[in-house]
Amino acid sequence: MPKGRTVRFRQPGRARGLDLDNSSMGLTAAIAGQASRLPDRLEDLHGPWQGVVVLPVHMTWHELREFDVARQRPRLLLYSIVISQGRRNDVARFLNAQRLREDWPQLRPLVSARMRRALERKLGLLMS
Is 105:91 a contact under the CB 8 Å cutoff? Predict the structure, then answer.
């Protein structure tokens, strides 16, 4: 870094001119925002049970785009990417309801806390 140059780091989770809202109302709004990216019901998830899924570029820009959903490890990675990066129609298209229900105990720690709460509340996913 050149001498005399000041580098400023932003606090994680903060945008310029915006403060973090840790109030219960802010948390409720954040969960509602995550829930809007989810289909209304678990039965609305129509992803494949087996085969290879190729994700679109808007969800994963690197070379890791193909996932064999019959194998659990690639499927968990696929599901975590779709849940964190996907749009509502992506979630419905790429996630299989039965697989998600069965994989939830292993997938749960891979998902952000906000999205985890949204999935559990809106789709009824619970630890078994």
Answer: no
